[in-house]
Amino acid sequence: MEEAFYYNAVAAAVAGDYGKIAKLKKKFGDWKNAHEALGKLCAHPIEPEREWEKLTRANVQLILFADDHYPTLLGEITDHPFGIYIRGTLPPRDARFIAIVGTRRATPDGKSIARRFARELVPSGFAVVSGLAFGIDAAAHEGCLEARGITIAVLAGGLNAIYPQENDRLAAKIFESGGAIVSEYPLGSPPYPGRFLERNRIISGLAQGVIIIEAPKGSGSLATARRALEQNRDVFVVPGPVTHPNFAGSHQLIRQGAELVTAAEEILEAYGVTRKEKIAAQENTVSPEEKLILKALQEVRKPVDVDKIAAITKLKAPTANRTLSFLLLKNLVKEKGGGYTI
Q1: Does residue 239 lie within any of the structural domains?
Q2: Are 151 and 208 within one domain?
Q3: Nearest to 97 by CA among 159, 64, 35, 144
Q4: Helix and strand tally (H, E) in the chain?
Q5: 74 within a domain of the structure (yes/no)
Q6: Shortest CA distance to 162 belongs to which of 192, 135, 132?
Q7: Are 252 and 303 in a shared domain?
Q8: What is the arrangement of strands in the sheet containing 180-183, beginning at the earlier edge strand?
Q9: Selection from 102, 146, 86 nearest residue 238 by Cα
Q10: Domain-located, residue 137
Q11: Could you list the mean pLDDT of each consecutive 10-residue stretch along the chain, which spans 342 residues?
Q12: Spatial separation of the C-alpha atoms in residues 265 and 263, rounded to whole Å
């Protein structure tokens, strides 16, 4: 606790600069000594108590590298953050993490693919990691939330200000749904352009693998892919039209040896998730209402409309409609012949 107390003051004093933090750690050994040394050099030294109160008021936790709760995979990378700030709840250390990233200027198809991959990976226990940016990142977070999964957003600035501001509501949904917003930067740190590349190592570092969806030449997601390879993580790439500029970087990654994927099923196969495990995982994520509808459709064995489903299950029509929407998103039911079936 004392180390976290002083680390936060040190990080605030150097505005979250990773290089400076690393040098201070190497020179002084612990954060209290580093803070005291900085205090002698500054005309207006940082007060640890005041900085810690800011974290408490913002409901932000700080986990240091030496802490038991520090994410296992992230701790394995050579340039792991010395501390991470968290708003919300991180999944257990042994949870499966998959990152989904891509261009901010995504096509409607690209965003749809990102949502679908996230939705279909959630039932098998994957937590989805991304960067809360416009385009592919936001779609991946949304798809995960639609499937009632856990998603982690990694920011390039302090957690007291969501960037981009337009995704503030999405950020709130993430931690309200049991996920977390994460950053290596102390409160009040601006999201400088260079920090987006720095945070990309955390996105890939948290995950077992990274899925690239729509990466033009020069895209930040290509930097994420490079960091993933350096960290010995898997890199999966969704291909696209050869003439579309949004896929120029994606196709380059495939030529360089990244694994081409066109469906979430292929990701699950890569990680050895069997059909039996997938079915069991899906059954564990369905609500009581969903179970009622699935049981009814299994017994009827033919497409039936919402009114018939409501009558069989004794659910109110709005509840049946809403529940069917979730089942469609999870690919557990499909529309056929004017009705719904397994």
Answers
A1: yes
A2: yes
A3: 144
A4: 16, 11
A5: no
A6: 132
A7: no
A8: 61-64, 83-88, 180-183, 151-154, 126-130, 96-102, 209-213, 234-238, 259-260
A9: 102
A10: yes
A11: 92 93 93 88 80 95 94 95 96 91 96 96 94 97 95 97 94 94 96 94 97 95 96 97 96 96 94 66 70 86 88 89 83 83 85
A12: 5
Residue 274's pLDDT is 65
Place of tokens 């708003």: 87
User: What are the percentages of helix, strand and coil residues in the chain, rounded to 5?
Assistant: 50, 15, 35
d(CA 131, CA 200): 8
CB burial class (10 A; 0-12, 13-18, 19+) of residue 262?
exposed
Reference 210, options 98, 43, 300; nearest CA is 98
Cα–Cα distance, 203 to 278 (Å, whole number): 25
Are 104 and 243 part of one and the same domain? yes
- Residues linked to residue 83 through DSSP beta bridges, in sequence order: 64
Q: Which of 223, 240, 275 is the last residue of a domain?
A: 275
What whole-number distance in Å separates Cα of residue 139 and Cα of residue 50? 37
Gap between the Cα atoms of 9 and 45, Å rounded: 9
Which amino acid, 151?
A: T
The one-character DSSP state at 98 is E
Strand partners, 63: 84
Domain count of the fold of the chain: 3
Q: How far apart are CA 294 and CA 283, in angstroms?
A: 10
341 forms beta bridges with 334
254 and 330 housed in the same domain = no
Q: Which residue has the tokens 């209290």?
A: 32
Predicted pLDDT at 284: 57
Task: Give the structural domain span for 25.
Answer: 1-57
Q: Give the pLDDT confidence score for residue 275 in this predicted structure.
A: 54
Nearest CA to 224 out of 144, 161, 136, 96 is that of: 136
On whether both 269 and 185 belong to a single domain, the answer is yes
Per-residue model confidence (pLDDT) at position 241: 95
pTM for the full predicted model? 0.81
Look at residue 66 and tell me if it is in a domain. no
pLDDT for res 40:
77
Same domain, 134 and 9: no
